[in-house]
Specification:
The protein is α/β, with parallel strands linked by helices. The protein is built from 3 helices and 6 strands, in the order H-E-E-H-E-E-E-H-E. It has helices spanning about 1-20, 55-60, 110-115; strands at about 25-30, 50-55, 70-75, 90-95, 105-110, 125-129. Strands 1-5-2-4-3-6 form a 6-stranded mixed barrel. The longest helix is centred in the first third of the chain and has 20 residues, at about 1-20. The radius of gyration is 17 Å and the shape is globular.
Length: about 130
């Protein structure tokens, strides 16, 4: 029994290292409500909730990103803003395309951004997968 537990712990550690290694870094900003019209859903965002995001060309995939879930974690300030990040990560649903000029790779809803960072920071570095 003890050996099985050790194997499970080692496996869990290896998987967590793999998921951390597969994250990509980029800038995230937020936009205030009214979140529509959105490129993926038009004016029909009622089933999307408030944990939503728009993405730039790197993630857009010609609309293939619509409905995808992204796991996002704040990693640091984009500007000289002391300790903008909050603990934990969030999962957001891609519902929009961020046209150029776009201030970040990910445009989070205000609600989503507020869960991972101080709104006053405005823009933060994130890891996403």
């Amino acid at each position: 029994m003890e050996v099985k537990l050790q194997v499970l712990v080692m496996l869990a550690m290896a998987l967590s290292l793999f998921s951390a290694a597969s994250a990509t870094s980029g800038l995230a900003v937020y936009y205030p409500p009214e979140y529509y019209p959105a490129a993926c859903a038009g004016f029909n965002l009622t089933n999307s909730g408030v944990m939503i995001a728009g993405v730039r060309d790197e993630l857009w995939d010609n609309g293939g990103a619509c409905g995808r879930k992204l796991r996002v974690r704040c990693t640091g300030p984009a500007y000289d803003f002391p300790k903008p990040c909050k603990d934990g990560d969030i999962t957001v649903k891609v519902v929009d395309y961020c046209r150029q000029p776009c201030n970040g790779v990910i445009n989070l809803s205000q609600d989503a951004f507020a869960r991972i960072a101080n709104l006053d920071a405005g823009k933060v570095w994130v890891d996403y997968s």
